[in-house]
């Protein structure tokens, strides 16, 4: 599944590059101000709420709301930041960043498979405040290069790991925000005990986010008590009976 997604992505990027070369829009790019990481660091706890309408494993997850409506509910109920899917396998598109940005003051993470520096410029051009870098699909060289490109654009990176090996690799880079993904991208199954298993190996220099498979306030509390700084939640929010209330519950101690 992951290989298939990446192959498609490469084709898509090549097409995009020929349709709209970087030199056609790079003058329109304004530098970011790292407000995504700043927002997370200044709070005791961070809820990154994901506007996720579908996933490759489960198909459609939410048809009652649009991305913008979800963003408004999350914003009104205490989320710290938002995550917006732009990959087609999640029913996402790049324009969603601009649309969501128009209805919220919260910083936005572009959720996609970043495998080319072109996408980093494109992310900032679209108005993203942060990008996701997935260690499983990037070499050390790519990780270092992309962290540097993002830094020059004032964009934050949430660097995602799933295994101990990936965590150790990432801790040798300049990454500050590290997401432990509880979802195995090979099988798409989730287990939040992955975060607890990797925790003893995490350097005190990194800000830790637990991602995926977080279902309720109890999961959020367990992660907070273990010393995690925040969580990234999609399904647990969009599939909740009352999304606003679940947002408040997972935002825990925030107002
Ligand atoms: O819907 P969940 O289980 O709460 O997961 C959200 C988020 O972590 C997930 O969408 C995600 C995290 N990393 C990814 C990489 C690719 C695709 C998806 C993801």
Write the layout of secondary structure elements.
Elements lengths: L1 H18 L15 H8 L3 E6 L2 E2 L3 E2 L6 H10 L4 E5 L9 H7 L6 E4 L5 H10 L3 E5 L5 H13 L3 E6 L2 H7 L6 E5 L11 H6 L8 E5 L5 H9 L4 E4 L1 H4 L4 H8 L5
Parallel strand pairs: 1-4, 1-10, 4-5, 5-6, 6-7, 7-8, 8-9, 9-10
Antiparallel strand pairs: 2-3
The chain binds indole-3-glycerol phosphate (IGP).
Textual characterization of the structure:
There is one protein chain. By secondary structure, the protein is an alpha/beta fold. The chain has a single domain, classed as TIM Barrel. Helix content is 39%, strand content 17%. The protein has 11 helices and 10 strands. The protein has an 8-stranded parallel barrel, surrounded by 7 helices. A two-stranded antiparallel sheet has the order 2-3. Strand 2 and strand 3 form a beta hairpin. The radius of gyration is 17 Å and the shape is globular. The mean pLDDT is 96. The site of indole-3-glycerol phosphate has 15 residues, from strand 10 and helix 10.
Biggest sheet: strand arrangement:
1-4-5-6-7-8-9-10
User: Strand portion, in percent?
Assistant: 15-25%
| Global Rg | 17 Å
The proportion of residues forming helix, as a percent range, comes to 25-40%
- Summarize the main sheet: 8 strands, parallel, barrel
Output the number of helix runs.
11
CATH-assigned fold name: TIM Barrel
Query: According to CATH, what is the class?
Result: Alpha Beta
What's the overall average pLDDT, rounded? 96
Overall domain count:
1
Q: What is the element string, with H for helices and E for strands? A: HHEEEHEHEHEHEHEHEHEHH
Can you tell me the CATH superfamily? Aldolase class I
Oligomeric state of the chains present here: single chain
Q: Which stretches are low in confidence, meaning pLDDT under 50 for 5 or more residues running? A: none
Could you say which overall geometry the principal axes of the C-alpha atoms support?
A: globular
- Tell me the distance between the termini: 39 Å
**Distinct ligand kinds:** indole-3-glycerol phosphate
